[in-house]
Design brief:
The protein is 16% helix and 20% strand. The chain has 5 helices and 17 strands.
C-alpha cells in the first residue's frame, strides 16, 4: 500500500503528461513517455510499451504490454493463484497473513505468473486475463471475456472462457505482418509510411507494395 501511495505523488506525473495524477503503481513498474495511464489504473510489477493505453480502473499484475496496445476500462490482468494439490488451497498454511501465522509451512509456489500482452493488441472493456497467459500480437479480446489460455497472433477471441472466433486476416497476411513488426518502427518511419496505416482491407499484396517482404 505504501508503494501505491508514494506513486500518487510521483514526479513522473509531471514529466509524463499522459499519466493521470490519479493512477497508481509500484516502484518496479516501467512505462514510456508516450504510454497513457488513465485515472485509477493500478500497476504492480508491470511494464507498458510505447503508445499503449491503460484505461481507467484497470489492474495489471506482473504484466508486460507491448507497443500500440489498448487495455479497456475495468480490465484485470493477473489475479493470483492458489495451490490445488495440497489438502487446502488456503494461503493461511503457507504464506504470512493477517489472520494467524503459527500454522505456516513455506512451500515452493508462485502466487503470480507473468502475463505477456503483445503489440497492437486490443483488449475490450472488463476483460479478465488469467495468470501465465500470453496474448499474441495483433489480437483482439472481446468485452467481458475471461482469457484462460494463450491467444494466437491476430486472433479475435471472446466468451467465458474465451475461444477463438476468427482471425483478423488470412494466414499469409498475418505471416507478413509478424515479419514486418511495424510496431517497432521509429516515429520517422511511421510518418514516412502513414498511408500504409490507412489502407483498407489489408492484404499480403498491399504489404508488399510498401515493404520488400
Amino acid at each position: 500500500m505504501k508503494a501505491y501511495i508514494k506513486s500518487f505523488f510521483s514526479l513522473r506525473k509531471v514529466k509524463y503528461p499522459l499519466v493521470s495524477i490519479f493512477s497508481f503503481w509500484t516502484r518496479n513498474c516501467e512505462f514510456q513517455k508516450s504510454s497513457e495511464i488513465r485515472s485509477f489504473a493500478v500497476l504492480n510489477n508491470s511494464r507498458i510499451g510505447a503508445y499503449t493505453r491503460i484505461n481507467s480502473n484497470c489492474k495489471l499484475v506482473l504484466t508486460v504490454v507491448g507497443n500500440f496496445s489498448a487495455i479497456g476500462k475495468g480490465s484485470i490482468l493477473g489475479f493470483g493463484r492458489h495451490p490445488l494439490n495440497y489438502v487446502s488451497t488456503h494461503s493461511i498454511f503457507y504464506k504470512k497473513n493477517r489472520m494467524r501465522n503459527d500454522w505456516i509451512t513455506p512451500i515452493e509456489f508462485k502466487t503470480n505468473l507473468p502475463i505477456k500482452i503483445g503489440n497492437d493488441v486490443w483488449i475490450g472493456r472488463d476483460a479478465k486475463i488469467m495468470d501465465g497467459v500470453t496474448v499474441g500480437d495483433g489480437s483482439v479480446i472481446a468485452t467481458g471475456s475471461i482469457v484462460t489460455k494463450d491467444v494466437p497472433p491476430y486472433a479475435i477471441v471472446g466468451g467465458v472462457p474465451a475461444k477463438v472466433i476468427k482471425y483478423r486476416f488470412d494466414e499469409e497476411t498475418i505471416e507478413k505482418l509478424l515479419k514486418l513488426k511495424w510496431w517497432d518502427f521509429s516515429e520517422e518511419k511511421i510518418l514516412q509510411n502513414k498511408n500504409f496505416f490507412n489502407e483498407k482491407d489489408i492484404t499480403a499484396e498491399k504489404i508488399s507494395e510498401y515493404f520488400n517482404i
